[in-house]
User: What shape does this take?
Amino acid sequence: MTLTPVTDPASFPARHLGPDDEERAVMLERVGYSSLDALLDAALPADIRAGAAPQLDEALSEYDAQAVLRDYAGRNVVLKAFYGQGFSDTITPPVIRRNVVEDPGWYTAYTPYQPEISQGRLEALLNFQTMVSELTGLPVANASLLDEASAVAEAVGLMSRAKKKGRRVILDSRLHPQVLGVAAERARAIDLEVEITDLSSGLVGEDLVGVVIAYPGTEGDIADPRAVIEAIHSRDGLATVVTDPLSLMLLESPGELGADIAVGNSQRFGVPLFFGGPHAAYMAVSDKLKRQLPGRLVGVSVDADGRPAYRLALQTREQHIRRERATSNICTAQALLAVTASMYAVYHGPAGLKNIAEHVHSLATSFAATVREAGAEVVHGHFFDTVAVRTPGRAQAVVDQLAEAGYLVRPIDADTVGVSFGESATAADVAELAKAFGASAAVEGASALPEGLVRAGTPLTHPIFSSIHSESQMMRYLRTLSDKDLALDRTMIPLGSCTMKLNPAAGLEAITWPEFANVHPYAPDTQTVGWRALIEQLEGWLAALTGYARVSVQPNAGSQGELAGLLAIRRYHLSRGDDQRDICLVPASAHGTNAASATLANLRVVVVATADDGSIDLADLDAKLEKHGKNVAAIMITYPSTHGVFENTVRTVCEKVHAAGGQVYIDGANMNALTGLAKPGEFGGDVSHLNLHKTFTIPHGGGGPGVGPVAVAEHLVPFLPSDPATADASAPVSGEAGVPIASTRFGSAGVLQISWAYIAMMGAEGLAQATAHAILGANYLARELSDSFPILYTGNEGLVAHECILDLRELTSQSGVTAADVAKRLVDFGFHAPTLAFPVAGTLMVEPTESEDLAELDRFIEAMRTIRAEIQEIIDGRVGYEDSVLRHAPFTAWSVSNSEWDHAFSREQAAWPVPGLRKVKYFPPVRRLDEAYGDRNLVCACPPPEAFDIDETDETADHEEN
Assistant: This one.
């Protein structure tokens, strides 16, 4: 297959690709090839190249792509959402929508693993944790989880790990159906016995790890959970409470009621319905469980000057370090949505949130009183926002009648209708809704909150929730935070494995269009024609690009795509009676989530060694297959490898595993080196997941949203994720079907327009060009930097794939300068660091992507060469490591401008090491963080404002160190 050049300079592919014709020629000459085709012929093994381009539609312009998106949006029927079931009507304040959701300073940022350049989003996420902690009454909260259903599954796993002896978990039958569907199957996957029961009759039996309690229930009813919590504690089990955050403005907190864990969904704090996601779920735990908390945890440490500074706490990275011993496989969370929810709380404050909660509750009580007066039966006497009304045999008729009037309500069963009130509801809506139940005029209702569960005080007491009173203040606060950070709108983010590429605005604009954003995930198919047509087309395109038979977009993160693929493999073997196949082979070089996902799928992990050239060690693979062959369920491989090389043995590996009866899982994290040129489903894969937030341009959003579709061969199609809302959780899913992975059928559907637009505007030829330019960019960097830093692994003709690994280990032994020192020093040049210490300790893995132009690539090369010269000064003995600029980097504006300066190097060398920085200069808000201090002194909620006073900080730091 020969590449077709991009000839139209106004086309989207030309706008997406960084290098123009002249720049591309310069790069090719430096790499040593006459054309992109010649480079690809040398870099990619011939036996993996696709024979023909994938069958996609003709590429569209940005204008035409948006016209098609508007057509899809126009096919949806947007009713006022009173459906509930875990998804509520809410209002996104425009100042937050415009300055967070639609601001590239927020949505293009990477996960805040490098804290010095992430202080803004870390503060916003700490606001989220503080909000959740205060609402739930539990001391430690994370930031964040993927959705409510999988958060409950994570809570069940946490309870099981904490209480190792028990093998039974009790799920409240009052949980939402999708929560039951996902949590029950995830629990069964790790060999827990699941019982779904009405908790009003109490707990029965022993051997319990814990219980999950709905508060309120799916029909809106509120039951006091204290008796159940006390009962499970008396059996040495744990209690998880699933709760609605807005209700906790009025209801007693789970922590005060004795819960060990609280989980829920923060969607109704200003995040649109988004047809099911992305939405930030949350988990809060008691202090004794904090070290087992899954997901990300923002903590507080100090920097080199003793000032408070935020960072991700240790357990955030443990999941990758621990591999098969990991407690969770979460990698992407929902950071952008957690920021949105936290800012909603900051903007409204405790008084505003309480007013919203009281408004919602008063409308619900008015509706209940009105339909009661008309003779209808209100099923539950105690509720917050959801009223269940008994209408024997007429539920669907009432639902249809209200749909005609513009309202979406829930048919709970054939005899019951659920009506859930949200933020935008009015008294006029109460009157219209009540008409369907025979009422003529609305009446006021009394509080329906249980007297013993009314919250005594108002939560959110931290000053941050009372300091913003106007839009001007909010706008400036958000700008202040984003200015602290480095995101893709300022600089290249050269992260190997994480593919930080351009996010096309033409697709991003569509996610907040009301015809997409305001559709409830459980709206009937007749109202979601546009959404489903878009998704069907996108799934078809992804299948064509990967060479698989079918794709499901339900997994809402790459980690969940991994889990879905492994569960499909596991269930496939079980359907064939091969229940002994429970081993997953994982190369030593694999992504950390691979082994963690295998563990969550209840597969035993056996590691396959890596050869000296970075490829899978075939001799060791043969030995493992000889030893474990009859028990091998699958192998998980990343292609091109995590070492950034196109291994020429990938077909051989696939054939060997297939011959042993196993399946081949090809991790799609590196599809940016394959898209349009090669298809995993054609060169040996049975299943792959894709990272739409990498290859297919959904923004990383500071650590999420992510979408991780799973693609499978024909024989695995029956085992794709099933619809969680219709799953029967009471019994295990038969071995002939798949299990639900996320809360909704299409997962984080609300951002799929971005990937749809990217593929639609690039077309098959544009996608192939993007891949070729990604490979060109990586090889250009590798060639330009190879004299300064050895390239650890290369393939044919010394080429790399779309990323390369810079080996600093020998330089470290000579100078003491570590890869971490280089990462910190790059901040002074205005760069996010490459991937640090993965997959090999003491190295940096660099991925430039196709979207970076020659000037930006050369700016990075200049920075790395300058740093190499600074290392050489230490090697030559001209400066000691402890006195070097590298040891003390990075430098804040204050540190290089205050009157005290006791370093041998100049302020200019510290802050302006190359001339280009005199025009555009980024200063980090803090100096290098003390990581060990942060783990010894874990603080997981916002510190008081006085902690940031420099005098107070110094005293506190001295006291705590002593």
In short: The first helix runs from residue 12 to 16.
